[in-house]
Design brief:
By secondary structure, the chain is α+β, with helices and mostly antiparallel strands. The chain contains four helices and twelve strands. The protein has a domain of about 100 residues: Ubiquitin-like (UB roll) (Roll), CATH 3.10.20. The chain has a seven-stranded mixed sheet with strand order 7-8-3-2-1-10-9. Strands 4-5-6 form a three-stranded antiparallel sheet. The chain has a two-stranded antiparallel sheet with strand order 11-12. The radius of gyration is 20 Å and the shape is elongated. The two termini are about 30 Å apart.
Length: about 140
Amino acid sequence: MSTFVLLDQGEPHQIDVAEGEGGVSLASADVEAVLGWEIRPEGLCKDDICIPMVNRVDLIDGERINLGRLAELVARPLAISLEDRVAYLGPPFENYDLSVGLLDAPDFTLPDLDGRMHSLSAFRGSKVLLAAWASW
């Protein structure tokens, strides 16, 4: 077992994890304390929402819950870095429908190569190609 930082929508939590062939797993008590999900006879539950578990073997191993399978079951994106000892559990996919579905980028203003300022909102209704670059 080792300690990980689990970022749940930006909130950091120190948790003990076990690593194995099936991925990273957490104690079921930590899943309940940190994420609010618990195993009940009717399924994986949080408050009054319960998700039936068709294949419990992939999700539960004794008193441990597979983090990747849990994220998949509750429809949340997961990124894990074993090297950095950190996992990020993003917001539910249902929240992406409004922002990604519309394909509206937030407005911003930047200078061009000649120093003239341009706002993205000035191009609404037109196709815009944005090229981004970073040095890292």
